[in-house]
Amino acid sequence: MTPLIFALVVVLAAAFAFINGFRDVSNSVALAVRTRALTPTVAVLLAAVFNFIGALLSSGFAVAVSQNWVTLPLGDSGLSILVSGLASACIWGLLLWWRGVPSSSTHALVGGLFGAGTASVVVGGNAVGGVDQSLLFQVALPLLISPVIAFLGAYLLVYPVTWAARYAQPNEINRRFRAAQSVTAGAVAFGHGLQDGQRVSAVLLLAILAAGYADGGPIPVWVAMLSAVMITVGTLCGGWRISHTMAYRLIRIDPLRGVVAQAFSAALLFIGAIGLHWPISTTHTVTSGVLGAGENQHLSGTHRKLVARILSLWVLTPAVTAGGAFVLELALSPLTGT
Q1: What is the pLDDT of residues 58-91, one digit of tens each?
Q2: Distance between CA atoms of 247 and 239, rounded to whole angstroms?
Q3: Is 228 helix (H, G, I), strand (E, B) or coil?
Q4: 66: closest CA among 205, 226, 274, 225?
């Protein structure tokens, strides 16, 4: 039974990576397409290239993430927890994509692991170690801190940028910042690959350890390649529903403020992935940065009801995926002997 469940984990991890790239491509391309800095095709290709590079390089952090993230029970019980958590996160991610709502894949996954681990304890199995700390440091604190920092940082950064461009003509400002958006879109895609690629690789490493196929050591090449390739393929498919929400429904934004939002968001992603080894949601960061930069103008045009709806779904995401994974794990428990 172990090889079969392990194979199912690999398939679901690949699906999770695909959905992650499919949904989160909007963070890189939405503003650049909205301001006509890039065509949709060029924007998606640019995002795909930098997502692949970032995800491939992120494998170097995946071992540390898997060791400091959660501890799974060994054998079929641990693998079934991954199956339930991944399946719940994938279903919720697709549902929110269909509704055009940007949300965090990481928060969905951690919530799913928590729910599946709780169900494992209920049926007499072993608990998931470290999941409480993951909920605190990977869900609660990022949910509260990173959007606030992104919003305030982007809002304040508009002041020095507009001051520096105060003597330029509006057409010249737009031309220059449209060109700059090509760089910031690539930077966001690279930061997304660094952040989310390591999460997919960490899940696969946890599965390898739980199945007893390895006892630690360097990350296998196939794990890094699978994570990078599936995120890239998802990016190439492009989930335009969320891009439409961010670029056209959420707030009106010009090229200058688009560059500010994406540049500051990318900087936060780099600091989180490389400097602090702290998981930061690309979606939360970029969405908040867009709102912050867009609010710093005379007529912001913010769709406040939509913002409130998105924020409420951000809070609900880990709870909903935890509930879904709880039910799935109860259903799978007879197969794993728990």
Answers
A1: 776 655 555 556 677 777 888 898 999 999 999 9
A2: 13
A3: helix
A4: 205
